[in-house]
Specification:
Helix content is about 35%, strand content about 10%. It contains 10 helices and 9 strands. The chain has a 9-stranded parallel beta sheet.
């Protein structure tokens, strides 16, 4: 699958429809979405108006033949803003060790999984539009990125928590896959594979934020080589957000970004190791992207990037064609 990672969902129905339609027109068959502001500012209090927007998005995606991967939370982002209901200065540590946050998070997942779409009447846990639930994005980041220092959790702590949460999701939903997003910042011990080997995870998404896989002689790429040795499918997400890249330069050179997208895709595709290929991120021309992410939010009017997407779609061919109408997705035995 060729996946766009979009944050542009807390908008009007017209803009939501444009986001979905333009994604499909540019070869994207799956959208991975961060959850809109559905909870807060008080923990456990849900914003129905925001949930209705999510209902509209899922309905639009179904009508346009685009699958959705929905992430419950960004585990790094909750360390950034004190007004965030799940705020903890060390991110994932709060979800693992604070019983109040942990139980609220389980309630959050249950609220979404059991929700009935107000537009089409489908229960989320029966909706074929959903390809997978994502427990979280950005499990951990580099220690220096946290106000409270890196998360004070062990590999075993995280492994147990991931399995507990993934199995909880499956207790509420037997129809959909469950996954997690990680990147090479997962520097919390040598035995990190224990986290990603959780039995209830169906596949793993790994972010390559600096095109490291093109430079296999460098040490950081070891993470990417080893993750493919796990007995789980791996979806690779490509972004250009890494600190080792000249952000000012690449923000002005979409031709360079487009060429790199093709080059990185070719490496993974020819090696035959990736189960999917994701690109960060897709947006609608009807919206102004959030300024911090503007250079990473691609739209159909960005001709170099749009052409790169279409070229990748052409290479994938039938591998990138969703069923019509959408059907529940299961892993092959």
């Amino acid at each position: 699958m060729n996946t766009g990672n979009s944050y542009d969902i807390d908008r009007t129905r017209t803009r939501i429809d444009d986001l979905i339609w333009s994604a499909k027109a540019n070869g994207i068959t799956v959208l991975q979405l961060e959850l809109p502001y559905v909870e807060g500012p008080q923990l456990g209090v849900y914003q129905e108006s925001e949930l209705v927007k999510l209902d509209h998005l899922l309905d639009s995606a179904y009508r346009n033949g685009v699958y959705v991967i929905l992430s419950f939370i960004n585990a790094y982002a909750i360390s950034l803003w004190p007004e965030e209901p799940y705020y903890h200065p060390s991110g994932i540590e709060g979800l693992v060790k604070d019983s109040r946050l942990k139980e609220a998070f389980k309630k959050r997942m249950a609220t979404l999984i059991t929700r009935v779409n107000t537009v089409n009447g489908r229960r989320y846990n029966e909706d074929p539009t959903l390809l997978s639930w994502m427990l979280l994005t950005e499990l951990v980041s580099a220690p220096e990125n946290y106000r409270g220092g890196g998360p004070k959790v062990t590999i075993d702590d995280l492994a147990d928590w991931v399995e507990e949460m993934a199995s909880y999701v499956k207790s509420l939903d037997t129809n959909h896959l469950v996954t997690i997003n990680v990147h090479s910042g997962i520097k919390i011990g040598d035995d990190w594979a224990k986290i990603l080997s959780a039995p209830s995870l169906d596949f793993i998404e790994v972010e390559d934020a600096e095109a490291r896989f093109l430079h296999v002689t460098e040490e950081p790429v070891d993470f990417y080589l080893r993750v493919f040795e796990l007995e789980k499918p791996v979806v690779v997400i490509i972004s250009f957000t890494g600190g080792a890249l000249d952000q000012v330069k690449i923000g002005k050179d979409y031709t360079w970004q487009a060429e790199k997208l093709r080059e990185i895709f070719k490496v993974y595709y020819e090696m035959g190791v990736a189960a999917g290929f994701a690109i960060y991120s897709w947006g609608s021309d009807l919206d102004v992207a959030y300024s911090p992410d503007k250079i990473y939010t691609y739209t159909s009017s960005n001709q170099p990037i749009a052409q790169a997407f279409l070229d990748i779609d052409s290479t994938l061919g039938s591998l990138n064609i969703a069923s019509a109408p959408l059907q529940l997705v299961k892993l092959r035995p």
